[in-house]
Amino acid sequence: MCLAGALAVALAAGAPQPAGPPPGLPPAAGRTVLRGEPAPSPPAFVEVRGRFGAPVVPVAADADGALEVPPSPDTVGWWALGARPGAAEGTVLLAGHVDSRDRGLGAFAGLYAVRPGARAVVTGADGHRHAYVIVARRAYRKEQLPRDLFSGAGRARLALVTCAGAYDRARHRYAQNLVLFGEPDR
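That's the Class F sortase sequence above. Prediction below.
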């Protein structure tokens, strides 16, 4: 499980310094007000047109504080302690495998090809579709994921997370995480 250790460390670590010139800017913190929207329901499906689509299941932290990712590489995990899609504030954090030794490519293998300007759609359990525009891509060392990814507060945004960088065969994990940030497409 490529994200488990990194997310536990991110909860305790300070803000990272991204490597290299970043494409786009992650959405700034602050409050977003959505009026007239129905109460948000949990996410059930995520898609980036032409790249991928996958079912979403809620996940939480294990006893060590690490994010539990779904065992199936075909399923994406939603950080259930964060925001729901369509919420007026907070980060909708969706994490998925890039690959699996036993099953090949994972649900989020397609994230590598997604660039700022792409449209992501998160469908809630109630069938309501919430569109986001990808505005930034960042690669973070496992130990340095931004703490604010794990928050139900702050400006409404989407964060799609998967593994990246070199694979360490001895530790059975990737060195980095790729994070795509999206803003609500109103």
